[in-house]
Input
Amino acid sequence: MTTRRELLKQSTTVAAMLASLGMYPHVAWAQSSTYNAAAFEAKNMGDLMKALGGGTPQESKDVVITGSDIAENGAVVPVGASTTLPGVKRMLILVEKNPSMMSAMFDVTDAIDANFATRVKMGQSSNVFAVAMMDDGKVLFASKEIKVTLGGCGG
Amino acid sequence: MADPMRIRAQATGDKAMVRVLMAHEMETGQRKDGAGKIIPAWYIQEVTAQLNGKTVMTAQWGPSISKNPFLQFSVKGAKAGDKIGISWVDNRGEKRADEATIS
Output
């Protein structure tokens, strides 16, 4: 029979093991000090720009979002974001109707082109944004609607 | 430790196109298992790319990047024989770094 004292002892051991493996949620969050958790929790453009310290986004022809019009599988939707403008600080890929808007944030240096492609999950048909945050504080974006026939967020 | 990444880097002119395929579950933390319990989020948070050991790009990702993530970008001034290094850190603190030579 297990006594209460033993049980307590065991549970602290297990907790310590979990913590050492980095499996405790708050421990895991604390490990990455540069990770902008607030930005990744933002639900709309206003909150997102507040979290990133950007101005009001303006639509621009110089920013390009690529993707198909219809995505059959919402779990794997190819999207690309690019711009040819000089002085880009950051590129973002956003999906408007996902539980959290931002999918990816790329910090651009002089050594690379502001041209990224990746694959995102989409819960439902939605507008997808490519956002370029410039050195001079301007925020430019392009959007495109992608229709999803099978959502990629459900179980 | 996670499976290795597959990295392909090809030089065209004065640029190199880098394509990376990472092996990761990218669990969103919104799905439920058979018993109705939420499967905890597990996803890559930070990605770093290096050219010959110098960091050229850093990225932060959310859980909405697809499972086994794909990433494509191009590096200026890279030529055949240069080394491209990619590393990631996930929200559990697990890490993986791999290197490829530009062809």
Observations:
- The radius of gyration of chain A is 20 Å.
- Chain A touches chain B through 46 residues (CB under 8 Å).
